[in-house]
Amino acid sequence: MKSLFSSVLLVSVLFMNSFSEVQGKKWKGEGTTQNLESIVIGRCYDYIRIVNPAVGEKNCSAIWEAFKNAFINKDPCNILPDDYELFINLSFHTIPPNKSLFWENNQLLVNSFADRGRRYMSLADTLFGFVADYLNWCGQANSAGLDYESCPTTEECENNAVESFWRKASATYAQHSSGVIHVLLNGSVVGGAYPEPGFFADYEIPNLQKDKVSQIVIWVVDDIEGPDIESCGTHTVKILENRLKTLGYDVTCTDNYKSVVFLLCLDYPDDSKCTLSSSAPATQRGPISSDRGGSWNKLMFVSFVGFLFRFALLY
Fold it and tell me: What pLDDT score was predicted for residue 24?
C-alpha cells in the first residue's frame, strides 16, 4: 500500500513540475542567453583590445547598461528600435570605406569570409553587432530581471527586444556604409536569394546614403552541394538589381564569386566544383623548365667569357 501511495505521489509531483514548466514558458522563443551580462561586457573588451583596437577606448560597462535598459522593465512586445539609441551611440565607430558586406541567408559564410573585419566588415564585425551576435534576450514588464525561460518570437510580436535591436543596428550600419558596397546572397535558397520582407530589403537599402555609395557589387553564390536556383539577372536577384538601379546606384552582379567559392571548398575538397585546373597544360612545363635551364647556361657562358677577357687584359 505504501509502495502504491509513493508511486502515485511521485507521478503527481512529476506532473505538477511539468505543468509548472509549461506554465512558466509564456513565449514560444528561447529564453535569455545565460550569463548575458558577462558575455556582452566580455565581447566588448575582446573587440576593443583584440579584434579591432583601432576603434579606441569604449566604456564597456556603460555599453552594457545602455543595452540592458533598452528592454528591461518593459513589455517584451513593446520594444522599439530607438530604445537602443544610447547603446548605438556608445558603441558606434567608423566603418571603413569599401569594406561593408551585406547579406541574406548565409550568416556563417559571411562571418568566415569577412574574417572579423580583416577582409570586410559586416554588421557582426562592428562593435555594436559583435557584442550581440547569436545571443537572445528579453525582459519582463514591471521587473528588473531577465526572462531566462522564454522570449517572444517575431511571429508572436514584431516589436520584441531582439528584432528591434537588429532593425536599429542594420539601419545604423547602412547609414554609415560608404564607397563600394558588397552584397553576398545565397543562390541555393528556396524562396529567394533576395527575400522580401527581409533586413536588407526593409532596413538596410532604405538607409543607404546615395551620395556616399559609389557602387553596389552583388555576389550570388550557390552552396557547393546545393541547387543552382538563382543567378544574376533572374528571379529575386533581378528584382534587387532593378530596385537598386531605379534608386540610381551603379550595380554589378557576379555569379559564384571565386574567392567565396574557394572558401566554401575548404569543406568540400573532393567536390567537382572544387577541382582546380592547371593554368598551363603539363606538356608546357618541360619547355618552361628547359628555358630556365637554357637561360642559366647562357648566363654562365657569358660570365666565363667575361672572366677570360679580363684575364687577357691583365696579362
Answer: 54
